């Protein structure tokens, strides 16, 4: 199979490159074969990958000893696992959509210190389900939602901004941030943390919202990462207004720290 793929790629490369030396053609083909192989995985536990160096996995029947150590309810013999290097907020909001759409429960949400060496978090999310198909589906929904939830994440070498919104918070957001279930909910994140402080002030002044949480590097809410996170709830229009106001301020501030053009990770959705 690998030989057939190599042959096809070599033919295509030869057409494009004409008289290119055969050694260079082979090198190019080998790179493409390696890339193609890296995108696939034959393990039954593998579900897929997504933006943010995110991987999705499923375990149909968790080992008894590990099940006990993880303190999982015995009825959940299957688990879905989502882990990412960057963008914990997008993952949690995506997981919130997953629990709405599937017969699964959030067992664990943790925000490890990561962002691939940057100022913020990575993520580890575990779903529990009685049937492996539900656990797998929860992971699939989460991975698919990430393209949307990364829409209002902005980053540069100097730091990052993150804004998230949902019209109806569910159990993932409740577990991670204490969001009132069924109510509109939003977050603002600014790194360096100084920017996050001003984003928080801007958000609460922009509309009548109820502050749910305020996390700083030293208060235990951010794994000591260099960012400030504000979470808030309220009327749908007010939550959106607060986020939009904070987003405009944040983009201006972060742009002063770098000559890089500040762009959304995907397509803004708020």
As residue ranges, the low-confidence spans are 19-38
Instruction: Measure the end-to-end span.
Output: 45 Å
* Radius of gyration based on Cα positions: 21 Å
Q: Largest beta sheet, briefly?
A: 5 strands, antiparallel
- One letter per element, helices H and strands E, the order comes to HHEEHEHEEHEEHEHEEH
Beta fraction of the residues? Answer: 15-25%
Shape: globular
Total number of β-strand segments? 10
What average pLDDT do the residues reach?
86
Structural class: alpha+beta
DSSP helix fraction = 40-55%
Instruction: Output the strand order for the largest sheet.
Output: 1-2-3-5-4
Description:
Helix content is 41%, strand content 24%. The chain has 270 residues and is an alpha+beta fold. Strands 1-2-3-5-4 form a five-stranded antiparallel sheet. Strands 6-7-8-10-9 form a five-stranded antiparallel sheet, with helices on both faces. The radius of gyration is 21 Å and the shape is globular.
List the helices and strands and how they pair.
Blueprint: H1 2-17, H2 22-38, E1 46-50, E2 54-59, H3 64-69, E3 78-84, H4 88-101, E4 105-110, E5 123-129, H5 132-149, E6 153-156, E7 159-166, H6 171-177, E8 184-191, H7 193-206, E9 210-215, E10 228-234, H8 236-255
Antiparallel strand pairs: 1-2, 2-3, 3-5, 4-5, 6-7, 7-8, 8-10, 9-10
């Amino acid at each position: 199979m690998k030989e057939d793929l190599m042959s096809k790629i070599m033919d295509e490369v030869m057409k494009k490159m004409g008289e290119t030396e055969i050694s260079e053609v082979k090198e190019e083909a080998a790179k493409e074969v390696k890339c193609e192989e890296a995108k696939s995985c034959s393990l039954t536990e593998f579900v897929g990958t997504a933006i943010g160096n995110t991987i999705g996995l499923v375990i149909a029947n968790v080992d008894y000893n590990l099940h006990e150590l993880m303190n999982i309810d015995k009825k959940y013999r299957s688990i879905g696992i989502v882990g990412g290097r960057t963008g914990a907020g997008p993952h949690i909001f995506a997981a919130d959509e997953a629990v709405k759409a599937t017969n699964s429960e959030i067992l664990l949400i943790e925000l490890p210190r990561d962002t691939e060496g940057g100022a913020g978090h990575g993520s580890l999310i575990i779903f529990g389900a009685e049937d492996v198909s539900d656990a797998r589906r929860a992971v699939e929904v989460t991975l698919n939602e990430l393209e949307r939830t990364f829409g209002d994440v902005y980053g540069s070498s100097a730091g990052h901004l993150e804004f998230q919104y949902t019209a109806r918070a569910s159990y993932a957001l409740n577990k991670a941030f204490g969001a009132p279930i069924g109510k509109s909910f939003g977050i603002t994140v600014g790194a360096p943390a100084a920017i996050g402080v001003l984003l928080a002030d801007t958000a609460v002044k922009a509309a009548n919202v109820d502050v749910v949480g305020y996390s700083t590097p030293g208060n235990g809410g951010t794994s000591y990462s260099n960012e400030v996170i504000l979470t808030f709830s309220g009327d749908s229009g007010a939550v959106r207004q607060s986020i939009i106001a904070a987003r405009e301020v944040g983009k201006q501030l972060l742009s002063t720290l770098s000559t890089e053009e500040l762009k959304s990770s995907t397509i803004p959705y708020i």
